[in-house]
């Protein structure tokens, strides 16, 4: 099984905003339309549809922030396609694309501390919960050292 990351553009943006999370997951991520809008104003933000063949099954975004840190800001799989391994495949593809295109040695992300499925996925890829001093009741930070990256 394989997936592809394809840029979001004028031909597929409506398909992207039609992707939905399970009702229990909606509090963990903003709607995709928010991230699409954000991408028009945040420099160095890359947005992708996650495709299985010609079907968009998810949405991903990452950004090189002002401090030079690489951040995965979005990874979601449509509720009707969850549990099929697409999230894992997409995360592997995102990490490999970042490694090819950037010299960063770390990838960061923040996540809701109760989003257990996502935390499990990121930890399986080698991300570690990292204290930054910016944590809040609805946000923890995870960091992946690319020198230690090995998905299991």
TrEMBL record:
Q: Which residues form a coiled coil?
A: none
| Highest taxon of source | Bacteria
Quick check: keyword Acyltransferase in the entry?
yes
Q: Which UniProt keywords apply?
A: Acyltransferase, Transferase
The N-acetyltransferase domain extends over 3-147
In terms of PANTHER family, this protein maps to: ACETYLTRANSFERASE, N-ACETYLTRANSFERASE DOMAIN-CONTAINING PROTEIN
- Put simply, this protein is called GNAT family N-acetyltransferase
Record the organism: Bacillus spongiae
